[in-house]
Amino acid sequence: MIFDEAEQLPASEQSRLKEERWRRLGERLAAHPFHSRRIPAGSSLDDLVSLPFTTKQHLWDTYPFGLLAVDRSELRRVHATSGTKGRPTIAAYTHGDLELFRNVNARALASAGAGPGTVVHNAYGYGLFTGGLGAHYGAERLGCTVVPVSGGMTPRQVQLIRDFEPAIIMVTPSYMLALIDEFERQGVDPRTSSLRIGIFGAEPWTEAMRAEIEGRMDMHAVDIYGLSEVMGPGVSQECVETKDGLHIWEDHFYPEVIDPVSGEVLPDGAIGELVFTSLTKQALPVIRYRTRDLTRLLPGTARPAFRRMEKVTGRSDDMIILRGVNVFPTQLEELVVRTAGLSPHFQVILEREGRLDTLTVRVEARSDCPPERRDPAAEALAREVKDRVGVTIAVEVVDPDTVERSVGKLQRVVDRRS
To answer: Is the peptide bond between 64 and the residue preceding it cis, with omega within 30 degrees of 0?
Structure first.
């Protein structure tokens, strides 16, 4: 389903629109104490590659309102992240920003297969986290019926799905797996539920996890992407008819991919770190914001007017360097999911023994995996990691429901090194 006409503009009109929005943004920021020093007067989008990056450190250093581009009286909502090492970042919105937030999420839901009257079970967290309210208002803008469950109360979530019969669920992929487990715990075949589409985001997830969810739930699993510093959810969305990467709404969020080390802009198709410039955000626009998410840009398919980004494969700042080898949690997830007897619920635990770092994958056994099969499963996973990633790890297979579930972002990595 097409939500608005901008999705069908020809390439030349898209380019003109983006250039005009960049020009207006530059004029608005001409007197801003932070941005005016970094954006030359009269610059075009072609000049963007020469401008300095914005990083999370800039947001921390100016917390909470130092980067506002409007008077505080114009704000209508403020969200905040939980904070890294105790330092949160904020997402601030004017009335116009909230309209934009609703519209890009409505466009995302339409791309995923929703439409007027569709019942949407929204299990993203509400509150300061942008996910719950962003999804909620986008669904309402599209004309959907929203069940605003938020996170937690897993048995009740399953009951409400059975009672209200939603067609779509919006939730983190790790918590979707917890819900599937709960269906089975209650003696209900998840494939018999009303759910036909899951819109999953807020954490990286792999094609193996997609196959796991689709196979156990008889549903389409599609990806949604966003981050609070740029807008929240709805920056890009995977289309249900293709499921081949997320179309970026480039008329509002201009993407680049860079080499994470050198900062050099990479050509489309090359894997690197995703960078965004918000062309239409009013309260807190960001210029060349380094997301730390790793992906690549590809031509549009289901929405030819917009480039796609590949599913995020990890983060440049979540990369684990173990004895000289780069390891990403998503690499381990691919191997965990395909190892017989192991569930997708796992954590990576980093510790230090003497001068050496060690990595242990703590993973739950599947409910149908007998105790005598756990050691062979652990050995099989350790062997696969050694063969495919190139590092030696330990594997601890634990009982089902032992690894803590998350109603928001799953904490995959537990770093116990001093």
So the answer is: yes
In degrees, to the nearest 5, what angle opens at C-alpha 349 toward C-alphas 347 and 354? 170
Torsion of CA 170, 113, 302, 243, to 10 degrees: 50
Helix (H) or strand (E) holding 297: strand 297-298
pTM: 0.86
Residue 192 vs residues 4, 145, 162, 173: alpha-carbon distances, Å: 34, 21, 10, 19
Residue 61: other Cβ atoms inside 10 A: 12
Phi/psi for 80 (5° steps) reads: -150, 150
* CA gap 114, 121 in Å, rounded: 12
Question: Phi/psi of residue 180, each to 5°?
Answer: -60, -45
Task: Compute the distance between CA of residue 209 and CA of residue 242 in angstroms, rounded to an integer.
Answer: 17
What are the pLDDT digits (tens) for 66-121? 999 999 999 999 999 865 445 788 999 999 999 999 999 999 999 999 999 999 99
Sequence-ordered list of residues with C-beta below 8 angstroms from that of 13, at least 6 positions apart, any chain: none
pLDDT digits 0-9 by tens, 286-320: 999 999 999 999 999 999 999 999 999 778 877 78
